[in-house]
Specification:
Number of domains: 2
Low-confidence stretches: none
Strand content: 15-25%
CATH topology of the largest domain: Trna Endonuclease, Chain: A, domain 1
CATH architecture of the largest domain: 3-Layer(aba) Sandwich
Number of helices: 15
Helix content: 40-55%
Length: 431
Amino acid sequence: MTDLENRWRQAQEKCDVYVMCSTLNQIVNYLPLENLKNRENKSLEIINLTYEDGENKRFLNKMWDENFSTVYNDRYEGMPWIDSDDIKLPRRFKCENYIREIDKCIDDRKNKNFIWNVTGGQRNILFTTMKYIEDNADTSSNHTVMYLEGNTQKITVGYYDRNEWKFGAVNNSYRSDTIDLHNLFRLAGYESKISNAVSINKDKNEEDFLDLLKAYSNFYSKLYQVNEEVRKKLIESNKWNKKENNANEFFKLLDGIKHKGEVTDDDFKIIKKSLKNRTNYLFGYFLEYMAAAVIWNAVKEMSKQDADFFQSLSHSVKVRKHDWREEEKFCELDLVLLLRSGQTVVFECKSGFMSAENAKSREYTAYALGGVYGKPILITPLSKREAVEGVKSDGYENITKAYSSARRAGLEVFHLDTLKEDLKDLFKDAL
């Protein structure tokens, strides 16, 4: 254990006061707090660095603070905030004014041990925190500054010792095995309803959804190996006119894949059941389940390297903001992969047309739900070769347009045939 890691371990054990910065992305405040609250027989005071109300509607600190307190109070029912304080800082930065406000709040706590989580703050918060600790050098050993690194899922720790700052990353991650998508979205001000979900490293999952993923996995193994004409017809099926026998025609196409081996009669029955009552755009639903199966298999394989990295995969997630008055007003997310660091990857599976405006909207939704920890990705049924060479087919127009729209909007695109490799590349720096 390095000196820095030892210092961080002691800081967590001794921490009396947890200082956090009000932010849209409240998960960065919630996860470290969860670890501190799990200590036995150790109370904790919470100080929230927030801002005075202002005219700038981009910074809704009051709403962000309410989101946090709602989730916190539900999670720790019967364990209310202990002597919790808000330090309301002026919108206009002036270091001496900020220090004065901080000093007024914690003057009678100076001999206590502090952890300052500056992840959610602007640079001026970091400067102010460091200046405050430097000005109180006689008690500087009681203060530890922390910052959560999103890309590496590591914690950067700093402390002031003998008139100099010492910073460095510690091996401790800030992951949580209890975080769930519902509370993550509530921290961002959204309610959610999830149709299907599986936990990555838990044995207890809904067998029906697991069986569904396994069945689609077997189909996927053949989809890009069999006659290319079969896959082309599946994609073109989205343009069929609305007819009652569309489902039967679609299942005939799937039956052609089934007879190529590996796909059992039971698999076929499960897939037909998942698409029952659908008469149009069956390939769109088929693509969602297929992508879910590939993602599931990929993260299970990657979890062998790091069992604590992924938390859950959810399908068909409906989200709505707290202030949306109409119950029917919601946004539906096709697939959401949740990491134990509180990060999310939101997948949009597109088998038909999508405008550039819609692509930008999906990107905005992902970031609104997960802050900078939310990553939006489009999944296309086009193979990587087809996308590069520019496939020309009567049934592919809408898909190629959706692909182009996503690229123009700056949305990252994954291809169904290389989805597993794309996912591994996405997480290579963190695993």
